[in-house]
Amino acid sequence: MTGWTYIIPIIALLLSVLLLWREIRRPQKGRLAARVIATVIVVVSLVWLAFPAITERQVPAKSATASKPEDGIIDCYWPLQISSGESLTLDGVFRKTSEKPVKLLLSGFDTDMDSVTLDGTGNLPFRLQAVPGHKGRAVYRIKVIRGDDEQMSEPVPLIVQEPVPLKILLLSSSPDFEDRFLADWLGQHGYPVAARSRVSRDQYVTRFLNLPEKPLDIATFDVVIADKDAMTGGEKVQADRRVRQEGLGLLLKTDSAGHRAGSVKLQLLGSHASLAALPQDPLAVVRDKNALPLAKDSAGRVYTVVNLQGQGRVVHTSLHHTYSWLLNGQEKSYEQYWNLVLQHLSRSVKPAEQWRFSPFITRADEHLTVTLQSGFDEIPRILQDDVAIAPAGHPLRAGSWDGKYWPREKGWKLFRSAHSEQWLYIFGKDDWKQMPAAHVIAATDIARKQTRYEWWLIIPLLGGLAFLWIERKL
Q: From CA 137, how far away is CA 126, in angstroms rounded?
């Protein structure tokens, strides 16, 4: 109830008193009763028009039954594009109306990647995670299973980007298997690598992979991986300055991996799945409460962390035997670990153009807004295949251009400008049906209030005004 609830009746009462007083004070006393009635009718009609009739209408039982909320995923989000080695995380809400457990399963390439079982009723949050093994475009599925029946299956499109090849410098105080295996693996994956190891007090051996041989200069590399005693005093000063001022990524290894025999199963940041077992002293941990843990075991012991320092990042690790994964045929674990580490060591480079699409779930034959944030001083030409999308400049955001598009078919669509391109998956008409419906279904089982303007109220208003006007002319 607002202040107008009181103001309008008070104004109507004062207006009624004023109008009635003027009618009574008129010298001509004929038709006084009719004039008073007409005045009251006019004022009451005005009040009713100011207050639209609020009628409470019960939803028919048949309609409520037809619109009864169904079990399903009513909200879900995941990144449409990630880097290779990065974890795919789906966060969502499942509406559950029965006590029977429901299993949500994330699958792709005929492989079950993660699952969660939901008990109880209500709107239940869930999270599914996996590290994709593919590169490029793919469509995963999230399945809803009750008992032995698969009740629904929704598409989860994803683009996995190849990491930007970083120029990497490996520095070791003595030859070791860890750096040699890492240099070979990086070189096989297209990274420009230089690996220097000390063989005596003043003698070094340097290997170059995907790089021409030349004197080493830290300023020419994006990432430096070194143990404690591998860098000279001048190199340490230069590396520290470049980390803080220029965004160099620096990985420093602890003195040793410990002396206690054992093994650990690591869990990486963003994933609750464990990697293959790795030889490691469980007590040789990295202690830094202010750092972000990248790799830890199920007991919460942390072995690799990352810190922000100025514009760059510094990673500390006590893992010295990750090459054991390769020797034991566990290349996937090796790749996941080092892709994550390199991702956190790389510079954050903002692309010249960025694409955004709205809504998140865009279906065939539905409206799509394409937004291109461009750093170029020109009006962009946006194309979807051979269809031109006319962009309009945003009035408040410089370099931001919006275009409207209506996709006709589901599947992957390529959007292009003169300087960049971006893939987007268009969903089918029956995909993710529960998500938009969740915002409007809740009211179907209860009484709803509807605001309706009763048009017939203007009839007594006009009748009363007409009578008072004609009566004065007589």
A: 25
